Amino acid sequence: MSAVYFLIPGARLPKAVISSVTSTLDRRVFDELTRGADPVQVQQLVQRPILEGAVHLVWLQQVVGKLGGMPQTAAFEWEADGGPSMSTETWRLWAYHFETDDGGRRTVALTHPFTQDERNRLHDDLLAIVRQFNFQLQQWEGRWYLTRKDDWECQARPWCAQHHQYYTESCYWGEEFETMRQTIADFLKDHPVNQDRKAAGFETIDGLWPEGGSRRFLLKASTLRAVMANDSYVHGWAQNAGLLNFRTIRVQDAWPEAPEGDLLAVIDDLYEPYRRGDWTAWAQAWPLVWERIQKLAAEAKSRRCQKVVLIASGSVDTHTTGVEFKKTSGLFARFSKPKALSLDDFLSE
Description:
This protein has 349 residues and is of the alpha/beta class. The protein is 34% helix and 23% strand.
């Protein structure tokens, strides 16, 4: 039985807010899609604090790439975006700013872009620093990467999960991670780039977060026929698992051309408001998520998919349910009204 899978990162709500948030939601499309759905299955995929909030990446890596462990994103992102082939271990660098409150320091992305001119001004000195840790500094598609011959004996929380979160010892593993992070932070603190940013009223660049240490290799063949996701590394996983590149695209309202079989879409509109705890923005994104899922599910049905599978991810686990496309028709269809899925069962964290 072929199925269409919808992974919805950040779809889960803390128990403290679920009643107030769900009471405002328009659930008509959700109820229509989930009528007669299977009971919710809970799967805890994250066992370590370092991966808290990144359960969707763990799920994707297992399903698309048939890999376990830390999400291996950087090398596959580099390749999917057309970077030249490399045999080295690769890490993606994210610029961040510290926001301080009573709970500590939160790492947040820059609201004013990190420009190419700023990268050029920082490049040579930063290269000298990372070489102390046996890295080379690479640039591709306006992004910075680190590469090294031998694997780095450190791990870091994926940036999407670290964004808006406090910087603590649970965010990384390995002493050299903190040593390099602090060395780069000290270099950036009084650099003319940050002086200019302060003068312009912009936030400072307080650090560079490495994520996704990995090497490119071919993955086991996937049974998926098309994958839609907004992150290049998902495309990289899928392509290395045998999908043609025109069948791995950003999320849109129509599937790419593909043979009959399983389809996967990562609908990520809820994820950032979930991670920053902005439940108003989360509720505003909710109807758009289900309208898009409804459109894509209808098209998948026309491609002879027989079932919709919905996977809602939270901090450490997933809630999964499936519902077969309706087969009833004619005179008795009006009397077939199975119950819709419990919203609390599906969304509660």
